[in-house]
């Protein structure tokens, strides 16, 4: 393990490179296929979905993960774990998975290797062989199989005091741990950069004048899908959409039925687009896509169809000036122009 966690230097280029399991190297190379996705939250979420499946974390429930944390006595977020403790906890986690999912073959040594490799890449890129319990928990809880609201509640509890309140310092710690996940994929700029202070201030606006917030304030803020953590909510939608089939034909590539996400123009009647065409920006000659767009990750109900028809009818009579004056973002921006680190943000 010493060989695996220590940093190796590439003398030819004078660069420092980290040891990766050969299967992890293959996984990272495969993620490059997703770089043609135009929208950073979706690009990041789809990459994380592949990581989640490769590490078999999509099979682990939050209840199981939390039970193993308790069994391993991982209660103090600021306690620093060494690699032996990490391996011990991960082995317990995958042994639990093997017990619970007897129909599924789990290669425990490979899963432990891969998951440890990913956690070290995210939280210990310098390969010191150390990681805070809060980092370890944030990584695993973010990618386990659970409703995103339950993930939010659990993560908030990890940084809250005895009264269930969290101050700015502790919320900063949590959001800093979370932002390391897209940072490791090279995606941090789109989520406001590594500086999480604007996000902390944005969250505390939910409780004006208060020095500490409750879980209800945090959940209300997270429901707005803040820029720095929007990828976590999108990851859940990506997972749900995988099994969705929509009885509609793609306006661009003619796929029918549409599988995965389905996008519908609320400016044009009967214009549906599949996820590949929409997310990569594919168009065909003379077929321009008009915003606003509605996203579906489950099949539509008759009520939703009627609602969309009414919205489309209303939008038909709205001018380009109306849409330029009423821009709609799919997330809550957390940085002002003055705070933006660079033009990428």
UniProtKB/TrEMBL annotation:
Pfam families: EF-hand_2, EF-hand_3, ZZ. Signal peptide: none annotated. Keywords: Cell membrane, Membrane, Metal-binding, Zinc, Zinc-finger. One of its GO terms (molecular function) is zinc ion binding. The keyword Heme does not apply. PROSITE patterns: ZF_ZZ_1, ZF_ZZ_2. It is found in: Cell membrane. GO terms for cellular component: plasma membrane; synapse. One of its GO terms (biological process) is synaptic signaling. SUPFAM superfamilies: EF-hand, RING/U-box. Residues 245-301 form the ZZ-type domain. CDD domains: EFh_DRP-2, ZZ_dystrophin. It is a peripheral membrane protein. This is Dystrophin related protein 2. It comes from Oncorhynchus kisutch (Coho salmon). The lineage of its organism: Eukaryota, Metazoa, Chordata, Craniata, Vertebrata.
């Amino acid at each position: 393990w010493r060989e695996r966690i220590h940093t190796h230097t590439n003398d030819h280029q004078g660069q420092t490179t980290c040891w990766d399991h050969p299967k992890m190297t293959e996984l990272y190379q495969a993620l490059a296929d997703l770089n043609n996705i135009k929208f950073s939250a979706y690009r990041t979420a789809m990459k994380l979905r592949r990581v989640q499946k490769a590490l078999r974390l999509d099979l682990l429930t939050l209840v199981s993960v939390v039970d193993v944390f308790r069994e391993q006595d991982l209660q103090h977020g600021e306690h620093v774990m060494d690699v032996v403790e990490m391996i011990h906890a991960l082995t317990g986690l995958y042994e639990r998975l093997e017990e619970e999912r007897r129909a599924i073959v789990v290669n425990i040594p490979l899963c432990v290797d891969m998951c440890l490799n990913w956690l070290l890449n995210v939280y210990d890129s310098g390969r010191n062989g150390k990681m805070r319990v809060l980092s370890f928990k944030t990584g695993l809880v973010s990618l386990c199989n659970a409703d995103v609201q339950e993930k939010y509640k659990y993560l908030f509890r990890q940084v809250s005091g005895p009264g269930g309140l969290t101050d700015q310092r502790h919320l900063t710690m949590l959001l800093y741990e979370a932002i390391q996940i897209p940072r490791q994929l090279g995606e941090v700029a789109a989520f406001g950069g590594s500086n999480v202070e604007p996000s902390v201030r944005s969250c505390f606006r939910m409780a004006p004048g208060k020095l500490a917030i409750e879980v209800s304030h945090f959940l209300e803020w997270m429901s707005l899908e803040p820029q720095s953590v929007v990828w976590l909510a999108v990851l859940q939608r990506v997972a749900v959409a995988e099994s969705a089939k929509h009885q509609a034909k793609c306006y661009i590539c003619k796929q029918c039925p549409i599988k995965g996400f389905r996008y519908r123009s609320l400016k044009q009647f009967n214009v549906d687009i599949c996820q590949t065409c929409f997310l990569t920006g594919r168009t065909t000659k003379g077929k321009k896509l008009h915003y606003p767009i509605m996203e579906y990750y489950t099949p539509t109900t008759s009520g939703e169809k009627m609602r969309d028809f009414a919205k489309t009818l209303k939008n038909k009579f709205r001018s380009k000036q109306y849409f330029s004056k009423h821009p709609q973002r799919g997330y809550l921006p957390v940085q002002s122009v003055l705070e933006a680190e660079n033009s990428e943000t």
